[in-house]
């Protein structure tokens, strides 16, 4: 394991401990249990800060970090968690799980990448193995979509949670073809210029991460959910207006205390790019329609996009109330 990966993993337990501490003046008797299928990194700092702001408003948020998005979704379905982070469209349609997405956190911004010692273009990946974030994730959907578009088929898909982890695996030679975020792209270009090629992706408009919950939880805890949605939207808007705000939020809430100097230096550049994929209105019906177009092509959803109903996948109640209060952007 690389030093970067060790530092990231070391920070997870510290952040999880910080988030598990109850805030004073909780709004309801029970905690809001959030399942996050990833590790705490620079790219999740704004979400961690927003959760802290929800705690300040009286919501006892408790974050649990799990191995993958599909495990987080299973935790929500089984009642072990109240809210999950991901895009569980396949679970919603094929299993008809009693959950609904209630706000979009980010749209897809990823970069398929290959080690040029082995591959140069999409057709070279025919019959080869690739690595993505997790089963059912946006990264898997993108790679499957590009396989269809380029008439190729992978020999296998490995699930490697964490863009930083996949970036490190590329640099160490453990992975030859994968997909990374903007931070990973910058690291690869800086540390190994010319060694990696970023494959063309074209236009992609779809949810990368969203918040979802059991329908019973959404109706029984409407006030807490609205506080959470407002905390996230106000944080997103602040960060979009000034990416440096994330640095101040990290300091204020003592997030990622074990972050390395390189990780800290990447905060402003990362959020400068991430601002383009942070929905300032929570997504809503328009985002759901974009998702239907993308995830039916990629195979995560079945049927014609126009025939899919937003209410079968999303519950817009909390989002509509919050945006009516603070505006859509």
UniProtKB/TrEMBL annotation:
It holds the Pfam family NMT1. Residues 1-29 form the signal peptide. One of its GO terms (cellular component) is periplasmic space. Residues 55-245 form the SsuA/THI5-like domain. InterPro entries: SsuA/THI5. Gene3D superfamilies: Periplasmic binding protein-like II (3.40.190.10). The keyword Signal applies. Keywords: Signal. Its main location: periplasm. It is found in: Periplasm. Belongs to the bacterial solute-binding protein SsuA/TauA family. This is Nitrate ABC transporter substrate-binding protein. It comes from Pseudorhizobium pelagicum.
